[in-house]
Amino acid sequence: MFVSPPQFTFKHGWAWRILMALITLTIVAFAAVEYRDSHEIDPWFLTFALVCVALTVFAFIAIGKIEVRGHDEGLARVSLFGVREIPWNDVTEYRYRQVPVNYAAHFGLVGYLLMIFARKGSGSATLQRRLKIKGQDGAAITISENVRDSEEVIGLILSRVQPRLLAVARSYLDSGAGGSFGKITLSTNGLSWKGKDPVPYANLMKPRIDGQKLRIKAQGKWLDLVAVNCDAVPNVFILLDLVDEQLVKAGVSTQNVLRASSQIDRFRAK
Fold this sequence. Notes:
The chain is α+β, with helices and mostly antiparallel strands. The chain has six helices and 13 strands. β12 and β13 form a beta hairpin. α4 crosses α5 (236-249). The longest helix is centred in the middle third of the chain and has 25 residues, at 150-174. The protein is elongated. The model is unreliable at 103-107, 118-125 and 255-264 (pLDDT under 50).
């Protein structure tokens, strides 16, 4: 167990609890209508309704107990089922995901209500952000869009793990060992996508996160050289920072292109 007091503590928000409550209330309303019309309720339907109510009550309690705590030593997730801890120095990888979402388009009035609650403290009503970090022992903690102030939590976590992981990846690249980021490989010769011949850094342009995808273009090419979901790329911000540094070394004037065009500037631990 971590011995230092938490530096930050966050709980899950209300969005999914409200959705579950609305679904349960709908089922109960159907049961009430059936009883009003026939003065009896099918036993199977009654059992189903009672199970839904019981599960909703349990979910309210269980979700309310979930906390994400950041300590000097690492990150902890506390729930009814125990405590999961990952020391900061044991973090080997993170996966970041952001997805543009229109709740109202998918769920109507319920979606609109969810959007209102998701907007509170999120910093963005149109993006769902998720961060999953993994430790050396394979343990993982996921910060989902259901965590209250999830954007702030993700920023705090990245500020702790990004500098060390970036320094390690930079040392490997500078030594000639290169680095692998899913289907993307960096080497002293350039960037390789899906094992193809590397494209020199001087020929790369517009590396950015666009919506839910990481996009990298090559000069003179109309189509993207790389277009892949962010969460398919381990340590995606480290990749972007390394490419940015190599562009500068290659004499390409980036004018902070990544930080100027990216929607996740605040997560860059520079």
